[in-house]
Design brief:
Order of helices and strands: HEEHH
Oligomer: single chain
Strand order of the largest sheet: 1-2
Largest sheet: 2 strands, antiparallel
Distance between the termini: 43 Å
Length: 91
């Protein structure tokens, strides 16, 4: 639905099969994507407005979904939850 709204608002003529790249904006992980999205071409690296909590939540969900296929040991989830601590990997 977000892609349709963005395509209509862009003023450009899209056809079936055309690619449309967008990103989600906002401050919380629970947002209505169709109300909080912009065309990727509108992204301003000087003033970033991507929704970091939304993308972190999506990434964590994917990690949990596929974690059984990852090597065993301390989970990345446990590492991610230790906010503010540096990675033990040496640079």
């Amino acid at each position: 639905m977000a892609k349709i709204a963005l395509a209509l608002a862009s003023g450009r003529s899209y056809r079936a099969g055309d690619q449309l790249f967008y990103y989600v904006t906002g401050d919380t992980k629970k947002v209505k994507v169709y109300e909080n999205s912009k065309l990727a071409s509108m992204y301003d690296p000087v003033s970033p407005d991507e929704n970091v909590p939304y993308y972190e939540d999506k990434l964590l969900a994917l990690f949990e979904k596929f974690s059984e296929f990852l090597p065993k040991g301390e989970s990345v989830t446990a590492q991610a939850r230790r906010k503010g601590k540096k990675s033990r990997r040496s640079s």
